[in-house]
Task: structure prediction
Amino acid sequence: MKVNQIKDLVSKMTLDEKIGQVIQLATPFFKGASDEGQITGPMKEMHIPDNMLQHIGSVLGASGAKETRSIQERYLQDSRLRIPLLIMSDIIHGYKTIFPVPLAIGSSWDLELAEKSATIAAKEAAVSGVHVTFAPMVDLVRDPRWGRVMESTGEDSYLNSAFAKAQVRGFQGSDLKHDHESVASCVKHFAGYGAAEGGRDYNTVNMSERELRESYLPAFKAALEAGSKLVMTAFNTVDGIPASANKSLMRDLLREEWNFDGVVISDWGAVKELIPHGVAADEKEAAMKAITAGVDIEMMTGCYANHLQQLIETNEMDVELLNEAVIRILELKDELGLFDDPYRGADEKREAEVVMCSAHRKAARDIAAKSCVLLKNEQDVLPLATTQKMALIGPFANSNDILGPWSWLGDRNEAITLDVGMRNQLPASQLYVANGCGVNNHCEQDLSKAIELAKQSDVVVLALGESSEMSGEAGSRTNIQLPQAQLHLVAAVAKLGKPTVAVLFNGRPLDLHGVVDQVDAVLEAWYPGTEGGTAIADILFGNVNPSGKLTMSFPYNVGQIPVYYNSYNTGRPQGTINAQERYVSQYLDCPNEALFPFGYGLSYTHFKYSDLELSSDLMTPDKPITVKVKVTNAGDVAGEEVIQLYIRDLVGEVVRPLKELKGFQKISLQPGEERVVMFTLPEEQLRYHHADLSYHSDEGRFDLCVGANSQDVMALSFNLHKTKGE
Result:
């Protein structure tokens, strides 16, 4: 449809029909519109008028070709203008084939794999009748107490931006209208949600606009540049105003400055939450503030449904605010091809063939293996020999709770557990399995059984971690160590003196004291998804060489938080020459640095870096610097390495980070093979937001570092010179 056709359609709509388009309701409203018993509790308390149900514009959480086609068919029968429903769902890290959580996918440092996982998720969702996914979440995170770190790709805006683009490309493909194996992407949460105070979900966010633009907005801009069709508002405040009522954020920045012309949708219940936030006295004022700020679709509260009509009829609100929102929603429906085919690829037969097919499961296995991060491997305990007798002990030894939060339609019964993955590669007589304890519960009898099996083994594999309820949305924790029952198990096993490997299942960086100091090897597996057990076994037995690198720092303890690699220096930095030993910026009982820093991850081989060269020690706006470094596989097995490029602006108008990631490459090398890796660093990558929010670079000296992680680097320097007047 052309713009004029959409505007003509809007002109034919009644006020009720327009208001319906800006409301999103959950699936039970559409299953049970004529059955009072279907709508209960908070949903019933929304008081959605019965006559409004036939006009609602979008449905949340419907799935399966049969269900989505049925809902759409019934809806269109009652639609005077036959405007189809939008069907939206949370497809975060897989539809039914579940991939590792996004924080794990980020640890792969593999943009192609990230895009592939999104493509597969979109294919399964689309054939099941879903049109829009609420992903990617691109919130920058520095506080592992916040449970939703598992949905992010980490603490770095450059890396988050790269993954944001990859995921949007994967979800949307190149032709949403005609490619019915794609879905529209909704980037979230706009903005600053990852900086909730104290790591407590839904909590206040307070930062300068410069910091917001410098660190927290780039990944959103990248997602929109990649074509994301929707933006979801955040629950938190931005400069004292909740995001869903923040005109400066959504009208001035998103619409005017960034020229975003897509749909803005609230998060679940966020419009009504303007009342407890204290910026709206009632639902009527909440509706007025949200639509004025630019929220096109209200998700799962009744503010728009119950108050927009009155606001318009009393001239408190200009109907054009409603019209422009409806136009954007109809344009999205047209971009998805729904006016031509309201069922858009939902096909029960194809669904049975595509969803959880062998090719998708294989991809999940590959991505899970690439996402694991080897944190410790003393005495080369890993990889394990298949001739060894092994005790697999811990609450995750045979647990299928490995899909992680926001796996929605993932079936735990389809997940490959660690014991199954290991048994598939070992003679049954060589693997002894026992829980030893629960995730949170200690049982002396279970512990005794586990210790006896450990005594009979050559090596012990401890399967430890968080249950999925301990992470994700509303999964904030002040103590990010493993539960005491598991630490007790680790200590008991350590007393045996057996070679011991810890495999961790979790959705956040942990305080690993009580684990890392007691075992010989630590493999961070995150929540690895449907094929997790097989992928981890591939690594444990050396079929796959681990190549993952952290995208979020692991603290020594919770007292350091936030601890992140790209922090600022202070006027009294630790280690300063001539500074008094005590009176510098430091802890008395803990290092300043992370236990495991950003970019860190071991391999079964060793990579040597040498011969770092710059094409020049002088950069100008029209003369980028070429960076070369030789990387050699100095070990005995093939492996993949992530080469990371960092800079530091030594003197800026405002304080600059100690390091900033500006490039990375993942390469594969055979034993003894060496390769010269090249980067191009242009002046554009030296720019930042100044005190007046202008975005440009400063002349002066810069350090340039290349290495295997943010701490272990080689360094050279160069100068930036800009001609007069620039």
Observations:
- Residues 555 and 594 are 5 Å apart (CA to CA).
- Residues 33-37 have pLDDT under 50 and may be disordered.
